[in-house]
Amino acid sequence: MDPDQYILLEPVLDFSFHQFFVFDPIDAAGGHHIPRSTEAHLQQGFARLETSVAFNTIELFGDATVTIFFLPYEKFAEYQRVIAVPLENRSGKIGVESVEAYVRHRQFSIQPGHYRLTAAQCVVDEEREVIDLFFERLKAPMARSEIILADDMLEGAPFPLLETCERLR
Asked: pTM for the complete prediction?
């Protein structure tokens, strides 16, 4: 694989309360980028705004090795959960953080525009996951989110999926 097609995000992501965030830092001031998850959002594995998404992890607490791919979703591991959502980027940067550490801003550069963001997860052990994030650039916004592969925790996902939520702050 071409080294320009992926980034190993560092440091390792410490996630908590089943969540991590992917967001455009342009909206991060004062925490305005954080989507508010309801019970229905938790059941579908994500809550999203135009420029940010809160993904639920499979484990409640732990660490994750996060790899960023600048290409359409491909099965690189034995994933247990795969979810694709629309994401707009305006700033040319993306941040990835957990609930308690979002101020540290693990960031990388990306072209502004519309993306199909696919989060693919698998559990390594009780406190460790692999999270692969695929950023596929689109000419127009993706119409709907999609659960590509559901684990047992997503069995009660609402249909159709909830495409919006409120901001936490």
From this structure: 0.92
